[in-house]
User: Fold Cytidylate kinase from Desulfobulbus propionicus.
Amino acid sequence: VRKRIVTIDGPSGGGKSTVSRALAAKLHFTYLDTGAMYRAVAYHCREQGIAAEEGPQLADLLASLRIELLPPLPGGDDVRVLVEGGEVGQALRTPEMGMLASQFSALPMVRATLTRLQQQIGAGGRIVAEGRDTGTVVFPDAAWKFFLDASPEVRAQRRAAQLRGKGETVDEQQLLAQIIKRDKADRERSAAPLQAAADAVILDSTQIPADEVVEQMYAHILATS
Ligand code: C5P
Assistant:
């Protein structure tokens, strides 16, 4: 039996977060931002001076790690992330933290810990999960799977607009280079690489605004429920 779970995977900056949040609201499902969990591990390890390689220190940290996700505050966008009970905030959302998260996410030890936690959160269904491997590894029995792609240039533009909206100055060329590098690493790693599940619906948002992507997904879900 397929679980009442929607998975949305794809490369960074393809509009996954915006689309996942909106779709979750429309379905009255919970939005599960798995990328935030990888960012939280990277952040916490950096704070503790632990490098991105497997070893006893990382194993200890993962064994006792407490990560909690809370819904955004009214008027806010991002899921709030608590690590060991403390809220991390915007430090999680920088491009640098995305790169560091990508390094930690290649480690099987890290993936095993977070995959288990994500499966616990999704056990009751009614979840829209967003990430790189949610349709392939975390929730292979999800009822609805999407893979959302877009050209690297458009993704860099959107990410730049998003960061500028938060009052940051951005170098768009540098952002594009980072996006290309992070996607390559995510696609080519051996542990749970970024790829579309065989049964995923593939959408390209290069030419389509986010609200239209949401409508297409919603229509597909209604048609196959
Ligand atoms: O989606 P977001 O940009 O927040 O993800 C940060 C990084 O976390 C990704 O580049 C990827 O390396 C990793 N990630 C992952 N599997 C997921 C979600 C994120 O490996 N399900």
